[in-house]
Every structure is written in structure tokens, then in C-alpha cells.
Specification:
Layout lengths: L5 E6 L5 H13 L3 E6 L3 H4 L2 H8 L17 H8 L2 E7 L1 H9 L5 H8 L4 E5 L3 H5 L1 H12 L3 E2 L3 E4 L5 E5 L3 H14 L7 E6 L4 E4 L2 E3 L6 H12 L3 E6 L11 E4 L3 H12 L4 E4 L6 E3 L18 E3 L3 H8 L4 E8 L3 H11 L4 E6 L11 E2 L1 E5 L2 E5 L3 E2 H17 L9
The chain binds ligand PMT.
Length: about 400
């Protein structure tokens, strides 16, 4: 499963450091090339020689112990890693990563790395539940870190509670599952729209909406992490787009229509998370509009429905629409699915706390031709995106004969 994969295993200073040795052995047996970095405290619990023997590679403990003059070790390791696993991750290691500290070999490598990070925390239950630790874990999750939760049982400190490092088998399974997921959309071309469109009224004013682009960006990022080639057509957004995707910037619904239709034929999956204006000004003033009287009446006309246009022209594409609703969510979502010839519609009730525009979380129900496919509880937009893409991947993998009910 892991042949050819390069994994950095970070072992930090807790009693569970000994389990890091078993994890290292499992990863090596599964075919991974494992480079171990130990913090100074970890070396008090287990020797680097153990990890060197198991990994069959030198173990790094000191940023300044540069053995190969042709490279800078922490940058070289970071550049060549497919995944970094920190197991066990102490409260201190978690805090340092959340705070961006770089004062030893592991923290420096982590800052230099662009690959995903899987964290397996292990500590006393009160430490694990401390607000500082909880908020550090939340911060790391919001940046895309993945976790293998600690188990409940006898802790080294004497408590029977949550905090013990997950078993090495469980962490190795999570690593394999991540690599499997990271290939599940390999070879697929995915087009995602994100953000709100802007309909100009004059050179300084426009009509828009509350979309931040976070939902669409999370989908684009997740698709890329699953191996897809991603094009992101983005309107007005408040955050930078994810790295490694082809970004096309647009303003109006008309420009989004042009950008999306230009790419459509080559795409395998199209996901329309953007909030597109339904109306635009009939006349856009070339000059700033002047105050004239107490009232101003704007004349608006319908924009083209991009999703409906794509649905009509669909050949092989798997088409996913979004539905932002405030009532009768299922009814309106199913209506959009049929009218716009979508394979799936992701409905969010934007009147609910934690759902819809602007925030970091969403609450969605996914509908297919057969009705409700899955209702997801409140979760981060990143998690919604991963789950949605898994659903799409599953449907695309169905045998041809059963494609009619996708
Ligand atoms: O960007 P965030 O702040 O993270 O917020 C996320 C979101 C709330 C914008 C997102 O989850 C969402 O619901 N996006 C769709 C918003 C919307 O326009 O919904 P709608 O029900 O009005 O439109 C239905 C579908 O038709 C959407 O896929 C939309 O992209 C598409 N549409 C609508 C109008 C139009 N002229 N062309 C379209 O393609």
C-alpha cells in the first residue's frame, strides 16, 4: 500500500514514544520510506538507535547536525515528504505547531513542509481537555491537519480516561486510508466554482452576496488532495484560494458563465458552489451615479442560469449543484436537481446557525435522483468537502449498468 511513499515520523516526548517504534516498523513493512525526527524529550524515552534500526534511515534530532553538505536537512526532508505523522504528539508539540514555532528539528521541518500532517495526540486527560490544547487542535484542524484521536484506557499517569495514544495499527490504517483517498480522484479533471458574483451598477458600486468562497475553496483543495487536476473559477472571495489549483478569476455571472463553459467539455466533475447573481442591472452607468431625488429605482434583468446551461449540455460530466435555501430544503433541492439535470445537489439551509455563508462550518444534505443520499451534521467546510468528494468518487466508481441511479 505504501510502496514508494515518503513519510516523516515525528516522535515527541511522552511515555507513548515507545509506540512510535512499533508504528515505524509497521510503516516500513507496508513499503514506506520512513524518516524519523525525534524531539530531545523523545530521546529520553526511547533511543534514536531503535528508530534508526527500524526505519533503516538516520534519525534526526538536531537541526544543526547537518550530515550532508549538499542539502539543508529540514528543507530537504520537508520537500520530499508525502505525509508527516506525529505520534505521539504531546501538548507542547501541538502548541508549537499551532503557534508556528521553529526551535528544533521537528518544528522547523513542519514549518517547511507543504504536505499534509497527521497528528496522533497522547497526554493526560486534563491536559487533552485544557482549553489551550482544545483551541490549538481546532486551529490545526482549520488549517487542514488530520487527527487520529487518542483512546480511552489506563494512562501512564494513573488515570483511566481519554488520552492514550491510538494503537500503532490504528495510526498505520489511517495513514494507508489517507494515501488511498489521495489517489481516489487521480486522472479526473474537476471544475469548482466559488464565491459570489458582482454585478456592476456603476464604476464603484455593485450588487453581490455574502459568499466568502470558503465552501468552494475547501472543495477545490480536497479534490486536489484526492489527486484530481482542479480548475477553480472564483468570483468575489475573502480568503486566498488553495495552492496547486488553476485559478480563473471572474466578476459577473456572465464572466463566470464564459469561464465555466470554456472548460466544461474537458471536465469529468463540475461542482457549482458559487453564489451566482440571479439578476443584473439592465444598464451599467459609465459614470458614478449621482444622487437624484429621494428614491432610486434600479431596473434588473435575469442572468443566465449557469448550472441549468451546463445541465442541458451535459455529455459525460458528473454535475453537482448547490442549493442555498431557507425553507422546504428537500423540495427545492430536488426541484433544482431535476430542472438543472444535476447528478447531486448539496443543500444548505442558510438560515441555520453554523450553516451556509461566510463561516467555517456547514450543515448540508446531499440529494440524488433517488432522494436524500446523506444528511451531514455540522462540520467544517473542509470535512463537508471531503465527504462530498468521497460520495462523488463512489458514484463514479459504480459499474456502468448502475450509473442510471447515480
Ligand atoms: O462561500 P461561502 O461563504 O463558504 O458560502 C457557501 C455557500 C452558502 C455560498 C454555498 O454553500 C452555496 O450554497 N452555494 C450556492 C449558492 C446559490 O447560489 O444557491 P442557489 O440555490 O441560488 O443556486 C442553485 C445552484 O445554481 C447553485 O449551484 C448556483 O451556483 C447555481 N446558479 C444559480 C444562479 C445562476 N444564475 N447560475 C447558477 O449556476
Amino acid at each position: 500500500m505504501l510502496t514508494g511513499k515518503s513519510i516523516i515520523l515525528g516522535i515527541t516526548g511522552g511515555i507513548a514514544a515507545y509506540k512510535g517504534a512499533a508504528l515505524c516498523s509497521k510503516l516500513v513493512q507496508a513499503g514506506a520510506k520512513v524518516h524519523v525526527i525525534m524531539t530531545e524529550s523523545a530521546t529520553k524515552f526511547i533511543t534514536p538507535l531503535t528508530l534508526q534500526t527500524l526505519s533503516r534511515n538516520p534519525v534526526y534530532t538536531d537541526t544543526f547536525d547537518e550530515r550532508d553538505p549538499s542539502v539543508v536537512s529540514h528543507i530537504h526532508l520537508a520537500d520530499h515528504a508525502d505525509l508527516i505523522v506525529i505520534a505521539p504528539a504531546t501538548a507542547n508539540a501541538i502548541a508549537k505547531l499551532a503557534g508556528g514555532h521553529a526551535d528544533d528539528m521537528l518544528s522547523t521541518t513542519l514549518l517547511a513542509a507543504t504536505c499534509p500532517v497527521l497528528i496522533a495526540p497522547a497526554m493526560n486527560v486534563h491536559m487533552y481537555e485544557h482549553p489551550a490544547v482544545v483551541s490549538n487542535l481546532e486551529l490545526l484542524a482549520s488549517r487542514g491537519a488530520m487527527f487520529v484521536e487518542p483512546g480511552t484506557g489506563q494512562l501512564a499517569c494513573g488515570y483511566v480516561a481519554k488520552g492514550r495514544l491510538a494503537e500503532p495499527e490504528e495510526i498505520a490504517d489511517a495513514v494507508e486510508a489517507w494515501f488511498a483517498r489521495s489517489r481516489s480522484l487521480a486522472g479526473k479533471r474537476v471544475l469548482v466554482t466559488a464565491g459570489g458574483t458582482m454585478e456592476r451598477l456603476d464604476p464603484v458600486r455593485y450588487l453581490t452576496n455574502d459568499s466568502s468562497g470558503k465552501m468552494g475553496f475547501a472543495i477545490a483543495e480536497a479534490a486536489k488532495l484526492m489527486g484530481a487536476e482542479v480548475t477553480l473559477v472564483a468570483g468575489r472571495t475573502i480568503a486566498p484560494p488553495p495552492a496547486g489549483v488553476h485559478v480563473v478569476r471572474v466578476e459577473s455571472a456572465e464572466q463566470m458563465l464564459e469561464a465555466v463553459t470554456a472548460e466544461y467539455d474537458d471536465m469529468d466533475i463540475v461542482i457549482k458552489a458559487a453564489a451566482v447573481a440571479d439578476y443584473r442591472a439592465v444598464n451599467i452607468s459609465g459614470q458614478k451615479l449621482k444622487k437624484n431625488g429621494e428614491r432610486l429605482v434600479l431596473e434588473l434583468e435575469r442572468t443566465t442560469d449557469i448550472l441549468e446551461t451546463l445541465g442541458r449540455r451535459k455529455t459525460h460530466q458528473f454535475l453537482v449543484g448547490f442549493a442555498a435555501e431557507t425553507e422546504q430544503v428537500a423540495r427545492y433541492a430536488m426541484d433544482k436537481l431535476r430542472r438543472k439535470h444535476c447528478d447531486l445537489v448539496v443543500a444548505n439551509d442558510v438560515s441555520m446557525e453554523g450553516a451556509g455563508f461566510n463561516g467555517d462550518t456547514n450543515i448540508v444534505q446531499v440529494f440524488g435522483e433517488e432522494g436524500l443520499v446523506e444528511a451531514l451534521p455540522i462540520m467544517s467546510k473542509r470535512e463537508v468537502a471531503s465527504r462530498l468528494l468521497e460520495l462523488i468518487g463512489d458514484r463514479l466508481a459504480r459499474p456502468e449498468g448502475s450509473k442510471h441511479d447515480r
